[in-house]
Amino acid sequence: MRIREKIASVLALLFFAVIYTFFCWPMVCAVRFAGWLTREKESFIRPQVAWCAHWWGNLTLSVARAVLRIKVVVTLEGDRNLLYERPCIVISNHQSTLDVAVMTLVMKVIDKLNSRWILKEELRDGSFVVGWIAQRTGCAFVSRRGDPKDTQEVVRCARVLREDDAAVVFFPEGTRFSAEKKTDAYNHLLPPKTRGFNMFREELSDPPVASVTLHWNPSITTGKKGRTLFQAGDFYGKTLHVDIRIASSEEIRADPNWLVTEWERKERALAEYHRVHS
d(Cα 272, Cα 133) in Å, to the nearest integer? Predict the structure, then answer.
């Protein structure tokens, strides 16, 4: 890694640590405390906390884009109005640790800032700031090992989504893709885990879905690039393509295996990206 990339990586990591420790977390605490003083309902407080976290996440991404010279190209297919005035599902393929911040940009584009996440269980207590904020907004923590408690978490989170008219965001692959993990079925994706997706569809009474496809150019899916915040330099000078496709409830209901079908579409799109940009 060249010197300027190392410097940019350190600056991006430093900004992330400072912004979430000294600004985002205190603001969230203040919002929670104000809600407690005024005896507001949780269904009022949670969206305020989610908005704060989203705002800081989007600011962090904006600074990272400037420091690391990342170009982002966003395309949108479908009617955003389908996502309004009811809970919805937002799914994406997963390639890097920066994808979480990128999703704050996606939520801004589709105007669903009131969002919740499905996170791995380790983040509940292993990440003080992120885990604490996620708990206060009603996010779900799952083990990825088929633990029966995962079902309870999904049901609880779905109840929160209905109460708050919020969106739920998650990566159906369950972990980040790398070329070393590819299977016979996919060259650019990991097989999607359909159980959680189908549970949310059932609990939320057949909601619309925003399906996001992320592709970095040049690719970061080889080796261990972009796996942690300490590897921010791996994104330096790259272009990120963010394709958002909105699917109606009717479209999804017509295909019992919609998520698998959508993943096959993503695979073809990513293969074309690689062909054009290689």
Answer: 38
Question: Do 220 and 95 contact (CB within 8 A), yes or no?
Answer: yes
Tokens matching residue 128:
């003080």
Rounded to whole angstroms, the Cα distance separating 94 from 177 reads 6
DSSP type of residue 107: H
> Given a cut of 90, is residue 80 above it in pLDDT?
yes
Residue 45 · residue 153 · CB < 8 Å: no
CA dist 173 and 177 (Å) reads 8
Q: Is the dihedral of CA 5, 237, 92, 50 positive or negative?
A: positive
Q: Residue 54 is encoded by which pair of tokens?
A: 């989203």
Instruction: Give the residue extent of every domain in the chain.
Output: 3-277
Give the tokens for residue 275. 């062909």
C-alpha dihedral (170, 171, 172, 177), degrees to nearest 10: -170
Residue pair 241/214 in contact by the 8 Å Cβ criterion: yes
Is the Cβ–Cβ distance between 86 and 207 less than 8 Å? yes
Q: Are 36 and 61 in contact (CB under 8 A)?
A: no
Count Cα neighbours of 95 within 13 Å in the Cβ-side half-sphere.
24
pLDDT digits (tens, 9 = 90+) for 165-199: 999 999 999 999 998 898 889 999 999 999 999 99
Say which amino acid occupies 9: S
Please give the model's pTM, rounded to 2 decimal places.
0.93
Q: How many CB atoms lie within 10 A of CB 41?
A: 9
